[in-house]
Amino acid sequence: MRQDKHCLNCGTEVPERYCTHCGQENAVTHESFGHLVKHFVGDVLHYDSQFLTTLKYLLFRPGRLTKEYIAGRRAAYVNPIKLYIFISFIFFLLLAMIPNGQGHGEGGHNKVSIEKGGDPVPVVLDALTAVDDTLQKVLDEGGVHRKDSLIVVTGLPGAKGRYRTLHEYDSVQQQLPADKRDGALERRLRRRTLDMKEHYEEGSFWEAIKHHGPKLMFVLLPLFALFLKGIYNWKRWYYTDHAIFSLHLHCFAFIVLMLALLLDHWFSDSDTFTGYGLLLIFGYLVFALRNAYGQSFLRSLWKGTVLMFVYGISFAFVFAFFVLLLFAVIL
């Protein structure tokens, strides 16, 4: 402790250990290494205590954490925004680390990877065999022998759409009669899709969605709080109070989905654990509504069902808008 009772940070007189104006400790400016370590350990243990208490209430007492925070009892818990940023960061990091279509669930697909020009080209054997047989049959009936050069068969059903490159698509379209070519909208979508394929590697479209997942949640989180405000309009809660409930709920959802994704990746051939996780999240929502808003279980069940339904529709619309945006401009 310094002998001088004036704060070095703001100049206010310090009656005790900490400044009543800015909160800075009235400590000596040149601290020993041992004192720095002591401060660090104290801060870590304090945060750990906060985090463990917050996690206990979040996981095992649905709605109670929100109620405590709104009531003003906040010192013992982690700030909702900090908690959400921390948990969502881990969730989306884990989501990015789990490969698409890899794990125990990929064994049932009849796929093989062929190296062409240094890039892996996925080939679905059954589909290729069917297309090849159909093409050969049409060519045989027409008395045409197969050549290495490109043959445009305008009467082949389903021949459109199997293009590997943008150049190939444009070449075929130029050779087709005007009435057989794709319309303006279809042509734009096909060219955009092929352009994305050339710019991104296999599966990178979903990687882009994973990468921009936090942006989707940036829209969905306040929307969910708005739905809560509409359903509980009689409750004398501010919009920010509903937003705190939304943050806590999504934190729980991310934790459950993290565990479910890992279990599916390690042990399941499908999304079995993810399905159970979604049911658990719905059950948690119902009890959280009951405890936080103080209504009966049946009312909470009904409102929880409505919330999940509306939220699902909103997710679909936001996701569709994002996909359209991704098609319009390569992010």
Automatic annotation (TrEMBL):
UniProt keywords, alphabetically: Membrane, Transmembrane, Transmembrane helix
Protein's recorded name: Uncharacterized protein DUF3667
Superkingdom classification of source: Bacteria
Phylogenetic lineage: Bacteria, Pseudomonadati, Bacteroidota, Chitinophagia, Chitinophagales
Database matches in InterPro entries: DUF3667
Pfam families: DUF3667
Transmembrane segments: 83-101, 216-232, 244-267, 273-293, 305-330
